[in-house]
Amino acid sequence: MLATNPNPALPACPQGISAVKAIALGAAQGQRIYTITPAVYAPAATDTVTKALDSVSAALTTDELQALNQQVEVDRKNPKTVAAEFLKSKGLI
Questions:
Q1: Residues 27 and 50 in one domain
Q2: Claim to verify: residue 67 and residue 39 sit in the same structural domain
Q3: 63 and 92 fall within a common domain
Q4: N or C: which end of the chain has fewer CB within 10 A?
Q5: CA distances from 33 to 5, 23, 51, 65 (A)
Q6: String of DSSP letters for 27-76
Q7: What does pLDDT average to in each consecutive run of 10 residues of the chain (93 residues)?
C-alpha cells in the first residue's frame, strides 16, 4: 500500500507503510482483511495433507490470524512458536 508523502519538506513521492498499519487502516474502515485460501502443489496434495489443511482452515478465523500476525510482526515472537501454540490450543497437535 502506498501513500503520498505527508511531509511537505520532502519531495512528492510514494511512501510505503507497514503491513500492520495497512491492516489497522483497513480494519478501521470495516474492510475484510484476510481470505484464508490454502494452496498446495498438486503432487503433494495427499489425503493426509488435505485433511491437515482442512483442520487448520476450520480452526483459523480472521481475528485469530490477525492476532497471530501481531504476535510475530509486532511482538517479535518466533513464528514457529506462535504456530505451535495455536495448533496446540486448537487440539491439532
A1: no
A2: yes
A3: yes
A4: C
A5: 24, 7, 25, 10
A6: HHTT-----------GGG--HHHHHHHHHHHHH--HHHHHHHHHHHHTS-
A7: 60 65 77 69 85 88 88 92 94 91
